[in-house]
Amino acid sequence: MLDAKGSGVYRPDEAIRYNPGVNKRELSPLDRLLAGADNALRTVAAPAGHSPRGNPASGIAESDLTTSQKSHSAGLMRVNHAGEIAAQALYQGHAAVARDKSIEEQMQRAADEEFDHLAWCEQRLEELGERPSRLAPVWYAGAFVIGAASGILGDKWSLGFIAETERQVCEHLDSHLDGLPEQDARSRAIVETMRDEEQEHGENAIAAGAAELPEPVKKLMRLTAKVMTNTAYWV
Ligand SMILES: [Fe+2]
Ligand SMILES: [Fe+2]
User: Fold this and answer.
1) Domains contained in the chain, number
2) Within-domain flag for 12
3) Ligand nearest the Cα atom of residue 164
């Protein structure tokens, strides 16, 4: 049987992922709550598996990294993986309270791409012989509450929050591209693709009517991200 994108093995969870608008219209509030809980559990507790789009690192040869380079790459990819857990929760949180159907669908599409990012980071961590952050449930729960809370204020604020988040994520990924070992081409390919897509998510949010967030909120977001990135590098 064909999958949701027209090829390969059929997976019901992907059929839902790639037809969010169609499926969501038929869901009752209880169904949506259960679907949200299911997404949370799959994000933090189950392997992300393989992205239907393929991995940007496929076809790139593994490089010869020293032990310390490998451990530094793994630390940075663990931070990125934690960021993708948070991104998944943020978009799900926003989508859960979005008032406009087209904005809900836009957020669901971005969440699908974030899920691919999550799978790529997880695969790279495995290749580097390390594991994701043990605090994944904390990152997910915190980001879901922040996403839903900003969404309750209205779609323009929720979009503003996304635009600012993605802008800060791009800066952060740029710093990782500076910090990753030059020869770690597989990690770099993943981070470069993620960076381009995060920028697109931010531009889409601005085009959909994002409000500019007040400066103190931006500062608080930076501070929260710093705590998360500094912790996830090690734990
Ligand atoms: Fe992402
Ligand atoms: Fe993103």
Assistant:
1) 1
2) no
3) 2
CA of 206 to the centre of ligand 2 (A): 13
Distance 64 CA to ligand 2 centre (A): 30
Residue 183 CA, ligand 1 centroid: distance in Å: 23
pLDDT tens digit sequence for 64-105:
999 999 999 999 999 999 999 999 888 888 888 878 888 888
Question: Are 121 and 180 in contact, with CB atoms under 8 Å apart?
Answer: no
Closest ligand to C-alpha of residue 194 is 1
User: What domain range is 204 assigned to?
Assistant: 29-232
The answer as to whether 24 is a domain residue is: no
Query: Is 101 a domain residue?
Result: yes
CA of 147 to the centre of ligand 2 (A): 13
Q: Tell me the CA distances in angstroms from 226 to 112, 142, 201, one per residue in order.
A: 25, 14, 21
Residue 94 CA to residue 173 CA, distance in Å, equals 23
Decide if 36 is inside a domain: yes
Give the model confidence (pLDDT) of 71-80 as tens digits.
999 999 999 9
Helix (H, G, I), strand (E, B) or coil at 188: helix
Report the CATH number at residue 190: 1.20.1260.10
Within 13 Å of residue 99, how many CA atoms lie on the same side as its CB?
Answer: 10
The residue among 155, 141, 168, 140 whose CA lies nearest residue 95 is 155
